[in-house]
Every structure is written in C-alpha cells, then in structure tokens.
Write a structure and sequence with these properties.
Mean pLDDT: 81
Helix content: 55-70%
Radius of gyration: 14 Å
Order of helices and strands: HHHH
Low-confidence stretches: none
Largest sheet: none
Strand content: under 5%
Shape: globular
Distance between the termini: 30 Å
Structural class: mainly alpha
Oligomer: single chain
Number of strands: 0
Number of domains: 1
Length: 98
C-alpha cells in the first residue's frame, strides 16, 4: 500500500490513488484500505465521531467514477465490523484500560 502524506488526507484522493497505483486492485479492497487509512489518521474521540468520519469518507468515495455497488458493499461490511468490535470492547472493558 502506498504511503500517504498530508496532501492525501481526503478519502477521495486516497481511494483514487490506491486504484490508479494498482490496476488489479478491486474497488472493494481499495474502499476498505481507504477506510483503514481514515481510521488510522482520525482524531475522533467517540464512536459517534468516528462513524461520522467514516460515513463522510464513504460518501466522498461514492463521488468518484468507480463501481458504487462494490464500494458500498465493502464499506458497509467494514463499518459493521468496526461497530461490532467497538461494542464488544465496551462490554469487556468500558474504560479501555486493557
């Protein structure tokens, strides 16, 4: 996966860069990698803020000319996975001490 600098913070730019740098990469995989990058660089303090940022990233990617069906499907699975992990983490350790 290519590295990203400050000019590539936009989800749309990351998504497009991933797909143009590897012609064999699927749209769904690029969407998940983009959401992972947004997750890594996010300054969100709550699950609600994080969900809002990830939703905004999905909407930005949907404005590109790439397949929206696979993009939406992969993004939805990623968001469900993240929210399940977050809920499970809250149940195990609500203070995130471990």
């Amino acid at each position: 996966m290519p590295s990203f600098d400050e000019t590539d913070i936009s989800a749309q730019a990351i998504f497009t860069k991933l797909l143009t740098s590897d012609n064999e990469k699927s749209t769904g995989l690029a969407a998940i990698e983009t959401l992972m990058e947004v997750l890594k660089t996010s300054d969100a303090n709550t699950l609600s803020e994080l969900t809002h940022k990830l939703d905004a990233a999905v909407n930005a990617m949907l404005k590109t000319d790439y397949s929206s069906a696979s993009l939406q499907s992969a993004s939805e699975l990623f968001l469900r996975f993240i929210s399940l992990i977050s809920k499970e983490a809250l149940l195990v350790d609500p203070d995130f001490k471990h």
